C-alpha cells in the first residue's frame, strides 16, 4: 500500500528540515518535491497461510520497523543507506507494504534490510528504492492480500507510553493500515528531541496501536499531536485523517 500524507505538525527529521507549509514532503497537492526522483520505503510482512500474524501486532511491528530504519546508524551521516534515506525524505514520503511467505520471504530476507519481530508478526524493512526501481525479489511480491484479523480482542493500549491511534471511521486493509502506522511513528520521531529519540530507541521502541471511541478520536485530532492525512491514492478519500501519533513527550 503506497501513501504520501499531510501531517498537522512537523519539526525536523534526522536528515532534513521540514515545515508544514510549502516544503512539506507530505502535502497532498503538487509541490516542487514532485520534481525530484521519487523513492519508496519497502516493508514486507511475513504471512504464512497456516500461521498469519495478528492484525494489531502487524501494525505495531510495521511502525517499529520504520523507527528502527530511521534510527539505524547506516541511515545517518556517511552510512551505506544514508544517501537513499536523504533522497527519500527530500521527495515524497512513500511507504509500500507487500507480503511474502515461504521461499519469497527467504529471498526477501537475503536482501539488505532489517527484520523486526513482534509477538506474532515479522516485518522486514529495506532502505528506500526508486519508485520504478524495485529489486526483482520485492517487485514480484503482492500488495493485496494483507487482510489480517485479531484472533482475540487486542489488549487495551498502554497510554503511559506511545500510542498510534487509528481513525475509527475508516475501513482500511491491514497493508494500508500498516503503512499509515508507519507514517504516524515517523511523525512522532521527527517531533522528538535527540534525547527523547535516544530513550525511545534504547527501550526498543515500545508502542501501542489502538482504535479509540469516536468522541475520543475527535479530541485527539485537535490536541496538537501529529496527525497523518492521506493523499487519497488508495482505499480512502483524500485528506482523511488516518492516525494520531501520541507520545508522552509530545503531550501538552
List keywords for this structure.
5-stranded mixed beta sheet; disordered N terminus; single chain; 252 residues; alpha+beta; 17% strand
Model description:
It is a single chain. With 252 residues, the chain is α+β, with helices and mostly antiparallel strands. It has helices at residues 55-71, 82-90, 102-109, 136-139, 174-191, 194-202, 214-221, and strands at residues 6-7, 39-46, 95-100, 114-117, 122-125, 129-130, 163-166, 208-210, 227-229, 241-246. The chain is built from seven helices and ten strands. The strands form two sheets. The chain has a five-stranded mixed sheet, sandwiched between helices. The longest helix is centred in the C-terminal third of the chain and has 18 residues, at 174-191.
List the helices and strands and how they pair.
Elements: E1 6-7, E2 39-46, H1 55-71, H2 82-90, E3 95-100, H3 102-109, E4 114-117, E5 122-125, E6 129-130, H4 136-139, E7 163-166, H5 174-191, H6 194-202, E8 208-210, H7 214-221, E9 227-229, E10 241-246
Parallel strand pairs: 2-3, 7-8
Antiparallel strand pairs: 1-9, 2-5, 2-6, 4-5, 7-10, 9-10
Quick structural summary:
With 252 residues, the chain is an alpha+beta fold. The protein contains seven helices and ten strands.
Strand order of the largest sheet: 1-9-10-7-8
Major sheet description: 5 strands, mixed
| Class inferred from helices and paired strands | alpha+beta
Terminal CA distance = 32 Å
Order of helices and strands: EEHHEHEEEHEHHEHEE
